[in-house]
């Protein structure tokens, strides 16, 4: 059973870079019909897809991030990471990592990590 | 981007009730629609994919219907553990987008 766990600083200063890591257990990030994604949720609000990385390292991102996001993978550690630059208070949210499963042309997010709260404040 | 809307934004129901939540896409998304359940302080959990397919392990009281722009999630015989917020999500194209959520609470 695949499990995901986010880790990283809970507090980031404005204008700095937010860095989070998702550790995957029970399965390899390098195989299968999967992408690996980041999704965030500001307190009391809805869900926003940030971006994804494929098993071979191709990435794409939500244009709403205005090119501030970078997702990378460390296959030796079975981890993938998110860097979000030039953060502001608007980036304060619970950040989730999730597996994006593809079956034929369908896809869905499952499972998800438990989430980690990142607060942007000086 | 494809905009997703949901109605109602919240509802109150009793155990045993039948509950229907509606999701609408700003353009046709065929059946590329997923539903998630989120309980307070927890990560979302996949309920339905491809609009009508029940995720393994999810109780059969959950069902989904629709295609194109209009979709519904129905919970028949509402149980105490079903009180949560429900989100729809389109996977027709990127950026993947979610609806604003429907909170189901106890009447």
Please describe what this structure looks like.
The complex is a heterodimer of chains A (122) and B (107). Chain A has 122 residues and is an all-beta fold. Chain A has no helices and 11 strands. In chain A, the strands form 2 sheets. In chain A, strands 2, 4, 5, 6, 9, 10 and 11 form a 7-stranded mixed sheet that branches. Chain A has a 4-stranded antiparallel sheet with strand order 1-3-8-7, with no helix packed on it. With 107 residues, chain B is mainly β. Helix content of chain B is 0%, strand content 50%. In chain B, the strands form 2 sheets. In chain B, strands 2, 4, 5, 6, 9, 10 and 11 form a 7-stranded mixed sheet that branches. A 4-stranded antiparallel sheet of chain B has the order 1-3-8-7, with no helix packed on it. Chain B is globular and about 35 Å long. The N and C termini of chain B lie far apart (36 Å). The A-B interface holds A 46-49, 60-64, 96, 98, 105-115 and B 1, 32, 34, 36, 42-46, 49-50, 55, 87, 89, 91, 94-101.
Topology:
The complex is a heterodimer of chains A (122) and B (107).
Chain A: E1 3-7, E2 11-12, E3 18-25, E4 34-41, E5 48-54, E6 59-61, E7 69-74, E8 79-84, E9 93-103, E10 106-112, E11 116-120
Parallel strand pairs in A: 2-11
Antiparallel strand pairs in A: 1-3, 3-8, 4-5, 4-9, 5-6, 7-8, 9-10, 9-11
Chain B: E1 4-7, E2 10-13, E3 19-25, E4 33-38, E5 45-49, E6 53-54, E7 62-67, E8 70-75, E9 85-90, E10 97-98, E11 102-106
Keywords:
heterodimer; A: 122 residues; mainly beta; 7-stranded mixed beta sheet; 4-stranded antiparallel beta sheet; B: 4-stranded antiparallel beta sheet
Determine the mean pLDDT of chain B.
97
Measured as a percent range, the helix fraction of chain B is under 10%
Q: What best-fitting shape of chain A do the alpha-carbon axes yield? A: globular
Structure classification of chain B: mainly beta
How many E-type strands of chain B? 11
Structural class of chain A: mainly beta
Largest sheet of chain A: 7 strands, mixed
Number of DSSP-assigned strands of chain A: 11
Global Rg of chain B: 13 Å
Number of helices of chain A: 0
Q: What is the typical, i.e. mean, pLDDT of chain A?
A: 96
Spans of chain A with pLDDT under 50 lasting ≥5 residues? none
The SSE order of chain A reads: EEEEEEEEEEE
Bin the strand percentage of chain A. Answer: over 45%
N-to-C order of helices and strands of chain B: EEEEEEEEEEE
Specify the biggest β-sheet of chain B. 7 strands, mixed
């Amino acid at each position: 059973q695949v499990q995901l766990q986010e880790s990283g600083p809970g507090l980031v200063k404005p204008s700095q870079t937010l860095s989070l890591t998702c550790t995957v257990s029970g399965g390899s990030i390098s195989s299968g019909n999967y992408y690996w994604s980041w999704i965030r949720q500001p307190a009391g609000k809805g869900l926003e897809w940030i971006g994804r990385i494929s098993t071979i390292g191709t990435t794409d991102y939500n244009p709403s991030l205005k090119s501030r996001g970078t997702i990378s993978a460390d296959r030796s550690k079975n981890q993938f990471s998110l860097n979000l630059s030039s953060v502001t208070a608007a980036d304060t949210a619970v950040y989730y990592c999730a597996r994006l499963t593809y079956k034929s042309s369908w896809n869905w997010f499952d499972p998800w990590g438990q989430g980690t709260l990142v607060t942007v404040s000086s | 981007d494809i905009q997703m809307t949901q109605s109602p934004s919240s509802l109150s129901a009793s155990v045993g009730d039948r509950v229907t939540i509606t999701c609408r896409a700003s353009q046709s998304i065929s059946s590329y629609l997923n539903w998630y359940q989120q309980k307070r302080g927890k990560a979302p959990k996949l309920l339905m994919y491809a609009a009508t397919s029940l995720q393994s392990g999810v109780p059969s009281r959950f069902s989904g219907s629709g295609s194109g722009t209009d979709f519904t999630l129905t919970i028949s015989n509402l149980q105490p553990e079903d009180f949560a917020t429900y989100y729809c999500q389109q996977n027709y194209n990127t950026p993947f987008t979610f609806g604003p959520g429907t909170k189901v609470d106890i009447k």
